[in-house]
């Protein structure tokens, strides 16, 4: 018997879709991704991008406070034992994701810790192949595989991830370690301006490091950066190394000139990458309609329908604009309701 619904992906969109599907008696099977070195390097381990962040202060329902007892109570003991220690300040990204996972499991979601590497959309039920070679069939599929932030690939950048290196100012920018300190944003597009502008509310100075002498950002956004007295654009420079120590995390950056000028070292307590995201859609190439940046395309306004009937998309895999945990969760709910109603219409 084919599954009624298979959910691919284990970020906020995937777990929310699973919770709604489970409560609608669709008995969802969810692929949370494989635990491999390759996925670790790519930032695509189970539980998604939020599991790579520290405190989450903008997901509604988690004001500051000590959640220790709640986490002990809500999350299965065997999972709780392998989680990192609670920081005593509201919820962290990994904690929030374990809570969502547990909630989906509590309602009967079955979870397989593997990647789906192939989705055959030519026939129904759809056929899915996992990385261990096993195949599965489903009447409906919800794709919630998310996106990964692009990094430069520097060793020092990797070393200080979560110790001052981040790819999400909105997620991490307001943390105490960044307050009233100089910060660095890498990139010259709309995201970089948005991040720099946001960070300028907390930082003493924001250095925007851009490799050319002209911003890629739209004119209105570019002017926002240029006219912000707290933003100092380092034109024609690239990040050469993140400087820091095990004890203090990031303490500065070394920048290289693309215009033949000498290297510069700047003091900074944070480095924010804003050089774009890559959606996790390689396994869907040629199967589902995508935009020019390879994000899945919703084909019906206000719905999570993709170009293939019965396949739905939720979260960052279909959203290169909002990219927030709460919006991903919201679209996961939408995808589950869309799938439920579509399945009912097939009977
Ligand atoms: P983007 O427009 O592709 O800009 C990426 C920036 O990173 C570019 O300035 C690029 O430099 C730089 N970059 C890329 N790879 C690099 C590397 N290896 N080393 C150094 N610099 C590198 O991406 P985005 O800013 O994330 O925006 C994505 C889309 O979302 C855009 O369509 C944007 O308009 C939209 N968006 C809109 C808003 C808004 O309107 N409020 C906010 C955010 C995003 P080059 O310029 O030299 O290529």
Provide structural commentary.
The protein has 10 helices and 17 strands. The strands form 4 sheets. Strands 1, 2, 3, 4, 5, 6 and 17 form a 7-stranded mixed beta sheet that branches. A 5-stranded parallel beta sheet has the order 8-15-9-10-11, covered by helices on one side. Strand 9 (182-186), helix 8 (190-199) and strand 10 form a beta-alpha-beta unit. The protein has helices at residues 12-23, 37-42, 68-74, 77-82, 93-106, 155-159, 169-172, 190-199, 219-226, 325-346; strands at residues 3-8, 29-31, 110-112, 116-120, 126-130, 135-143, 147-149, 165-166, 182-186, 205-209, 231-234, 237-245, 249-257, 264-267, 270-273, 277-279, 311-313. Helix content is 27%, strand content 24%. The radius of gyration is 21 Å and the shape is globular. It binds NADP nicotinamide-adenine-dinucleotide phosphate. The site of NADP nicotinamide-adenine-dinucleotide phosphate (NAP) has 16 residues, from helix 8.
Number of helices: 10
Number of strand segments:
17
Uncertain runs: none
User: What structural class do the secondary elements suggest?
Assistant: alpha/beta
Ions, cofactors and other ligands present here are:
NADP nicotinamide-adenine-dinucleotide phosphate
The residue-averaged pLDDT reads: 95
Rounded to an integer, what's the Rg over CA atoms?
A: 21 Å
Distance between the termini: 16 Å
Name the beta content range.
15-25%
How are helices and strands ordered from N to C?
EHEHHHHEEEEEHEHEHEHEEEEEEEH
Largest sheet: 7 strands, mixed
**Global shape:** globular
